[in-house]
Specification:
The complex is a heterodimer of chains A (176) and B (135). Chain A has 176 residues and is an alpha/beta fold. Helices cover 37% and strands 20% of the residues of chain A. Chain A is elongated, with a radius of gyration of 22 Å. The model of chain A has no long low-confidence stretch (mean pLDDT 94). Chain B contains 5 helices and no strands. Chain B starts with a helix and ends with a helix. Mean pLDDT of chain B is 87; it is low at 15-19. The chains are: A alpha/beta (176), B mainly alpha (135). At the A-B interface, α4 of A face α3 and α4 of B.
Chain lengths: 176, 135
């Protein structure tokens, strides 16, 4: 009986402990990425969420112009945090359309009056169907849609200052 | 006072919820389907779908608004006589395999099924050799 073989189980166990320790130190990633990136936006047709702005339909997204599709809500706190960044994106020339989740027109109007309006259109989604259709798992999320209505990029969570150039670059790649 | 305690407690729980969203949840988030057989099929499927907001729960267990929206989708699709597995596919198309709790052999999960088999065979082989030596 060779002595080294006695050490094999212990080494295996040590390897297992090492793997577990490594995994425990890795930051937890809660994001569920959409697997719809690269595919066309699924069909939807939403009524206007604000009296002065048009509603939104998936057909509007295939008119040749790339857009940012922002899923948000007036009751969502991170959406307040990202409002100035969306405004910056709009000033840089991005066409931003919104989908408001379970929102009353008066709440949407109050939010836009308070935090500014970066949107060219906002659809009201009372059933959260667009989110599930597009693979979003919460608010806010921002999708880059190319001129043919295809999803080319997903941003999960609020848009921070450092994300603005990334989104602009993705829009440029999509042909803006 | 005792009679009031429960409603008051319920209010405490309800206020943060109403502050969170201004409109009621999707119709079939908390309402069962009228047909018991369809509801049973929907329930069975919902228990094997992951809530994306509270990722250790199924959408049947979770009170997250997102889970309610997914239950609504499952129920209306079951009511429209869609197959449960077709609905599961529809969701995995959007969120990947992570959304499903149903164990399935795939390019990433096959070691989970293969390793126990290999271990069992190895243990069996060692045992056979040891016992064979003794006799």
């Amino acid at each position: 009986m060779r002595a080294w073989r006695l050490w094999v189980p212990l080494l295996l166990f040590a390897g297992f402990l090492g793997l577990a320790a490594y995994q425990l130190t890795q930051p937890k990633n809660d994001f569920v990425k959409s697997t719809m990136v690269g595919k066309p936006v699924p069909y939807f047709q939403l009524r206007p969420a604000h009296p002065d702005l048009p509603g939104l339909a998936s057909a509007d997204l295939a008119d040749g112009q790339p857009r940012l599709l922002n899923i948000w809500a007036s009751w969502c706190l991170p959406c307040i945090a990202e409002a100035p960044q969306l405004e910056k994106l709009r000033r840089e020339g991005a066409n931003i359309v919104g989908v408001a989740i379970r929102d009353r027109p008066e709440d949407v109007a109050r939010f836009l009056a308070q935090h500014g309006n970066p949107y060219s259109a906002i659809g009201a989604d009372d059933l959260n169907e667009v989110s599930i259709g597009i693979g979003a798992s919460g608010v806010p999320e921002t999708f880059v849609i190319d001129g043919e209505g295809r999803i080319v990029h997903q941003h999960i969570g609020d848009v921070r200052a450092s994300d603005v150039p990334v989104l602009l670059e993705k829009l440029r790649e999509a042909g803006a | 006072m005792r009679r009031l305690a429960l409603p008051l407690l319920a209010l405490l729980v309800a206020f943060p919820l109403t502050a969170q969203q201004s409109l009621p949840p999707a119709p079939y988030a908390y309402r069962q389907l009228e047909d018991p057989a369809q509801e049973a099929a929907a329930q069975e499927l919902m228990e094997t779908l992951r809530c994306l907001k509270c990722q250790s729960q199924s959408i049947a267990d979770s009170d997250a608004p997102m889970a309610g929206d997914m239950r609504h989708q499952v129920r209306i699709r079951i009511a429209a006589s869609e197959e449960p597995e077709a609905i599961r596919r529809w969701l995995t198309e959007r969120y990947g395999e992570y959304v499903s709790y149903k164990p399935e052999v795939s390019a990433t999960t096959w070691p989970l099924f293969a390793i126990p088999l290999v271990l069992l065979l190895t243990a069996g082989a060692i045992l056979l050799r040891r016992l064979g030596k003794r006799t």
